[in-house]
Amino acid sequence: MRFLSALLICLSFIPNLATAQDRTNTILVLDGSGSMWGQIDGVNKIVIARDVVGQILADFPPDENLGLTVYGHRERGNCADIETIVAPVPNSASEILAAVNAISPRGKTPMTDAIIAAAQALRYTEVAATVILVSDGIETCNPDPCAAARALNEAGIDFTAHVVGFDVTEPDALAQMQCIADETGGQFLTASDAEELSAALSTVAAVVQPDPEPILTRIDFRATRGEGGDDVTAQVTWDISGGNSVNIAAPAAASYATELAAGNYTVRAYDAVNDIAAIADFTVTETAQTVTVVLAVPQPKATITAQDTAIAGETIAVDWTGPNADRDFISVGAVVQNGTPYINYTYTVNTTEDGLQMPPVAGTYLLRYISDDNQTELAAREITVTPLKVALIAPEAATAGETITIGWDGPDYLRDYISVGPADGTYINYTYTKDGNPLTLVMPSEPGDYEVRYVLDQAQTVVARSQITVGDVGASLTAPDTAMAGETVSVGWTGPAYDRDYISVAQPDVAGGQYENYTYVNEGTPLDLVMPSEAGTYEIRYIVAQGNVVLSRQTLTVNEVAANLTAPATAPMGASVTVAWTGPNYDLDYISVASVGDGGGQYVNYTYTKDGAPLQLIMPATAGEFEIRYIQAQDSVILYSQPVTVSQVKAQLVAEQVVPVTQGEIIVGWEGPDYSRDYIGIANAGADGYLSYAYTSSGNPVSISLPDAAGDYEIRYFMGQGGVVLGEIPLTVTANK
User: Where is the VWFA domain (predicted)?
Assistant: First the structure.
């Protein structure tokens, strides 16, 4: 038979209201049976047990009650050989160690009966008790350790058995030990040598050590009126919870102080006079602290007086009493506010003049007096909003784009309107109800099924609707199949002639709202339409202005248009040259002179073709290479161009070069082109512009006023076009005669 040994530490917790003097009663039960002579690594188990017990005793608190019980140390074969050698008293470690060292193992190992005996000695049915068992094998006296452990657990107040398997490998033995621990809520550990036995006993011994007395820290509590406000002087009720199941209900006082163990707590302060409560969370450490609870500032009182019912969207009168602080307001909103504080509001200073508009949907609401201070509600009263009675009188069918007459019966609130649109709720056209009853409403330009709706401006609420079917509308065109680029053609048409409908010419693949040119249908039929400036294939279209819907289209070919010019190849700058031309002579077409490479719409000078053929064209005021062009006004298309070289033009001046300021005027002879508005001027030397001048058209020579101050000047010949200087001579004006 396998040898069995057991070491049991039995602890009894004796509850007492006087916590400072309470001690844990501990009994060390040591196996003194013959199997303890067995060896591990050449050392007897009893010797290992003596060493381990000595280590445990060295660390055991001396002020705790500790005793010793031994079994199997006196007789062989007696399962009842159990003896308490040292009763549990303080400072008993040396006495216990002497008794352990004197044990000579010899008897059996009644493991289960030993646990039962220890439990009875500890009055396990009256107080909490813990047993620590160390065994090296299977039970030899009691046939069912599991049943015995279960019975102890059921009968005990708080009985626990911790089990250490010492050098145990047999599966049945390990299962027994595990069962004892499981049935009593204890731990099961294994040890194969002295070191592991010491560690296991230290582990379970630590479990049964009494918790140290908690360290208490003073905590002061205060309450303030608002964040950073004055201390509350009224009586406040304090409730503190948290920590290790602490619940304190302190008497009413302006402040409160107590001592608490470390932990997380919550304090609630309640001002019964003003019915205001607030909480604060705090953490207790070893440092004293003051916990501040911020109570809301008591709000002034307010009242609201209004009718009990109102019609949806109606504006009602609201009477109130209250502080009337800046930006205080009266609101109407849901009884339960889910993120939306109000539906409508009016400031208290404006309620007499503006009233308060009710929500657009029927239901039960609350009128509230809201203080601008933190949006606090000072007063509230219930109001019932009843449904609106609204009706529409509209035809069941209409033609696309048609203007129909709508009769209506409704509240005619500000900015209410009648609309038409698809069933998804959007609108295509609308007319305000203020425009009359009945009123006119333009139908959509696309056929289909639509709704005519009475819409409240408030929240765009639909309060009535009527179905209407919009049918097709037709149109036709009579126009030539071909035309010249830029030509004005006559187009006959039939169609609805809605306001701002138009006939357009456009590229075939573009949308209805895109075009090259157009003419409104209100110009009559037939009407004139200008063709595009570039040749190609186009469409003439009837367009409904609403939505730019194409009702009819006809394909048209636009052919190129030609022009020709006859003009000199060279000319002096600024000269007026004769240009002969042929071309379409469309309205606003012109002959231009422009820099080489510039676009058709860029030029230096031009003359309209309507001025005749040939016509006069003024050359640029600078010398260089240019082009004379025939320009089609529409899109500034260049129909023909011819190069022209513009040559430099000079002028000469003859005059006195030094004159006194008192002379007043100077006579200047000149030789130059004498173009229209050419002039002789006096200017500051080196500066642009002039101080005085005379037109060359006034004669030769000319008389020019002298400057008022003596100094150095220049006499210059200016070309009227661009003020280009063609010649200059110096002039000195002196102060002396």
Answer: 25-204
